[in-house]
Amino acid sequence: MYKLFLRGLISVLFLLGLSINANADFKVGFVYVGPTGDHGWTYQHDEGRKAVEAAGIKTTYVESVPEGADAERVIRQLAQSGHDLIFTTSFGYMDPTNKVAKDFPNVKFEHATGYKREHSNVSTYSARFYEGRTLLGHMAGKMTKTNTIGYIASFPIPEVIRGINAMTLAAQKVNPDIKTKIVWVFTWYDPGKESEAAQALIDQGADIIMQHTDSTAPVQVAEKAGVWSFGQASDMQRFAPKSILTSIIDDWAPYYVERSIAARDGTWKQQDTWHGLKEGMVAMAPYNSAMGSDLVKEVEQLQKDLASGKAHSFTGPIYDQKGNILVAEGAVADDGMLAGMNVYVKGVEGDIPQ
Amino acid sequence: MIKIEKRNDVSRSIYFLTPVLAIFLTLFGGGIIFYILGFNPIEALKFFFITPISDLYGLSELLVKATPLCLIAIGLSFCFKSNNWNIGAEGQLIFGGIVGGGVALLFYNHDGFYVLPIIILSGAIGGMLFAMIPAILKTYFNTNEILVSLMLVYVAKLLLDYLVVGPWSNPEGFNFPETRQFSKTARMPILFDGLRIHAGIFITLINVFLSWLILYKTYLGFQIKVSGLSLKTAKYAGYKGKTMIIIVFMISGACAGLAGVGEITGPIGQLHRNISPDYGFTAIIVAFLGRLNPVGIIFASLIVALTYLGAETAQIFLQVPKYTGQVFQGMILFFLLGSDYLLFFKIKFLRLKKNEL
What we know:
The complex is a heterodimer. Chain A has 11 helices and 14 strands. Chain A is of the alpha/beta class.
């Protein structure tokens, strides 16, 4: 009996071993920091992946990969299992991506929102989300009655600070009395914390809620409290139909399709991409008609100007909180300054956590 | 009528076989779940349990993952054996990581063979001190150690958040919430080129051996076990209960702290907010699956580590949702507890006589 069982076990293991076979097809892998159902950051990356799939290229994704010791293994496994191009879609994957890239020179790597390209097969890409923030600021400045804008921020990194500043500058332009109140939640995705932050901001008199976090909790709180809000990363309109004025949409699809095809056809080159409204990597969801057709027209015009380069989110004069000049009158901030931005502009309340 | 009775004699061999039974039941249950989800169950189980360890890199990753789990579970077994419910190993791991990481940053760009041992030692002491908080509160103020140790997890997490965002953040890191990469002398030596398995595994193995020695060969171990079985007996025998509570928490905390330091000086190489994917909580499952026995815990940690790796490979090859890994861990514990119940109790079906109604 025992021997029979053993023999059975061995033959099963053997058959299992036989069925592992390698696949020579071109494949693209995606590593996500959150679940694909977050309706924010990861959701949009997955939409991009689906577009790659629709273009006839095989894709694989791994969701909710912690940014700790596990990330390197997942990226390596994707490289090892025949993926030719791998998108790692969170900042915390920066060092693991570069480490794995070193060992797989024939595999291409694309890391989102990072700044390290230590090997020639690593590219980085990000979007000029701040252009969208400028539009939000314009609307917020016009729509607020209390002159107080509530901003839920994730981490005090340049990307987030840029967004706060771009929004505040645009709001001040249409409403000089504007004040931006910020709550730092130190997370990208935590519906509980985000809704608490939204509530706290509303209690402090904010009648506009804006978020640089990925869950739909803040817009839902805003909807309940009857204040205006803006969606983040994807169109969150259906979660707060009355409250949402528009959403900033991260549209990764064109970039993912372009880079995947380039990698398949052998024309992929290392680069650092920073696309915005012009290229469509940042897009706006339909504007809520509740803000009035005049304002919608204004914002649409501003959107066109930002895309064409006629307007810039950071046009001087720009002052910091103490009144020192950051950008001279008539000048615009260059990309180097934007990339390392770590001071608030005048009108933002509080200090950057250091 | 159904009657549940306690069994008088529990077979020792079956006691150690039920975890194996639980694993087989989990495989079976997992197969059914995969089938319901529309996957070929055999193929899915193969990607889950065989593919991840079918090459050297996979085996090394399995050990990398099992190293902290085993170490923490070993420490926890001291607490659990003596009926002290330390639920906060995650916090002790993080605090050990904070102290060890702090020392590593202090020795930034500092050469010397003594750097790593000091970091490791300080991590162990950090975890130990952090675990003494619930122990002292329990012994002198009669607080509930489950609550205190659990709440301290959040304290440790928030402290780590504060440090990596603020005072310890990398000055060249654009304010991203992470410290500098530790220098070479502060990193665990890698055992094989190209693999991530590091010297931390020796710390774990030495600890397993020491725990076995303490638990089964010393008077202290005997005291721990007796007070776990019956506190009254222990008191009657004149054992110092309070000291023992503090000692088991210290051992447990030191192990968790070592695990934390092993992670940050091993595969991670810096401090950031996600130094542990809840190893401290998963180790509770590992400890019980291993029957609080040092050898059992080694096997249990390997199996639980495999569920993590399996969840990743199954997702890569079949796009099975990632959370199936957690479902498997849950199922293992469920079946283990279920079979334990049947092990210690028997169910009797009694036919009622008419006059009893």
